[in-house]
Amino acid sequence: MFEISLTYPTPLLQDFLRFMDCLKEEDTVLSPKNQYMPREQLWGLNQLMSFKTENASPKLDQGSYPLLHMFYHLALAANLAVMVPGKGVKFHLKVTDRYEEYLKLTMCEQYFFLLETLWIDADWEALQKATYGRIPNVRLISSVWQELARVTAGKTLNVKDSKSSWHSWLWDWGYFLWYFTYFGFWQFTQDEEALKESRRKIEASSLTPTEFGVSLAPILFKYRDYLDWNHVNLRKGVLTSQDILDGLENIILSMGKKPQGFAELARARQESLDEPFYKKFVSLVGPSELMHTLPRDQKDCVEGTYLLKVSLSRGKWRKIELAAKHNLHQLHLAIQEAFEFDDDHLYSFFMDNKKWSHDRYESPLDEGPHADEVTIGELGLYPGKTFLYLFDYGDEWEFKVEVEEISSDKPLPLKPKIVGKRGEAPDQYGYGY
């Protein structure tokens, strides 16, 4: 059995603790464009990490620090930190009370909670944005864990050889080569020729799996397929693990052979979907060390009256009051009324403020998930939270929605109502604002 600690299988937990303590102690003002942490702060943090970015300088942005870039996304995805608006277009990164609950977990529980966050909640495209800008080929992710489960721990694999399966599987993994190094799955040697082109062009020339990684790999392959578990991928609705298995079966059948084990694997994956992520790993570490995690259901309905400020520009905004029971489609209708629009186009709410991201709710006439299927109280909103409302995909009217207040004392409005305004409504069909 493995004994997870601050420094085993790697110093991941120790470094994450230092990262979060820094967020608690310092005012972290994010950059307006990418909402990245300040460069001076990153440079200072890098000095405290066990996994340091070599040859760093105060001029490098967050994308040049793979460890800190990963921690930033894990903290947000796990709701251990949130972005709250400051002056102008700037946001501050603030640690939440949920972090105190994280600290009450055992070291083992903390490790698997972070792995769970990476596997289920994190946007792999955002994690990879600093390098290739695309995630590893989702059709091949499962193959990596399948083969990792078969190799000998400590035996170095040649990844650079174009004839090697590992070369075709890992060529586009970029920062994920680092991410799974931090989680203790392997060590890798960087391709120096690629590094000469760019410090962010991360490719491996060799890979050495660890005993820890080889032990976790079969569980990830058999019971925790990325396609079935990652929420961002599921929102895309592109592929499931069953699609991959069906394709492989068809290939084998076309070769005149009989597929083996596909039905059993599909059944094992399906049956494991309803259990907590960490459950299948208990046998590797012992039940006394891995008994709990933080609650996954962050969307229990928060009752009350919500006051939202909807801004088209600094001088044009409306305040809308609505109840927890009202849904996003009703908010859409209220915004249309508030700004005197004709409600004649599709729309989306992007909960991460990023236009065209997959963290969105769409018009009931669009593909979904739909705005009329989620209530305001189920969104996990809090005072200071902002999200983007985009109306008309041609003209792209962008509205910033900010939660100003959630009150349990005010009477619940029967329907969303406009309670404040500034600025004239724009001409929807002209040059408006």
Output the keywords.
3 domains, 433 residues, alpha+beta, Structural Genomics Hypothetical 15.5 Kd Protein In mrcA-pckA Intergenic Region, Chain A, 7-stranded antiparallel β-sheet, 3-stranded antiparallel β-sheet, 17 helices
Secondary-structure blueprint:
Layout: H1 12-25, E1 28-29, H2 39-48, H3 66-77, E2 81-85, E3 91-95, H4 98-103, H5 107-121, H6 124-128, H7 141-148, E4 157-158, H8 165-170, H9 175-182, E5 186-190, H10 192-197, E6 204-209, H11 211-223, H12 226-229, H13 231-236, H14 241-254, H15 262-271, H16 282-285, E7 305-313, E8 316-323, H17 328-338, E9 347-350, E10 360-362, E11 386-391, E12 397-407, E13 417-422
Antiparallel strand pairs: 1-3, 2-3, 4-6, 5-6, 7-8, 7-12, 8-13, 9-10, 9-11, 11-12
Helix pairs in contact: 7-11
Plain-language structure description:
33% of the residues are buried. The strands form three sheets. The chain has a seven-stranded antiparallel β-sheet with strand order 10-9-11-12-7-8-13, with helices on one face. It has a three-stranded antiparallel β-sheet with strand order 1-3-2. Strands 4-6-5 form a three-stranded antiparallel β-sheet. Helix 7 packs across helix 11 (211-223). By secondary structure, it is α+β, with helices and mostly antiparallel strands. The protein folds into three domains: 12-221, no CATH class; 225-271, no CATH class; 305-422, Roll (Structural Genomics Hypothetical 15.5 Kd Protein In mrcA-pckA Intergenic Region, Chain A), CATH 3.10.290. It has helices at 12-25, 39-48, 66-77, 98-103, 107-121, 124-128, 141-148, 165-170, 175-182, 192-197, 211-223, 226-229, 231-236, 241-254, 262-271, 282-285, 328-338, and strands at 28-29, 81-85, 91-95, 157-158, 186-190, 204-209, 305-313, 316-323, 347-350, 360-362, 386-391, 397-407, 417-422.
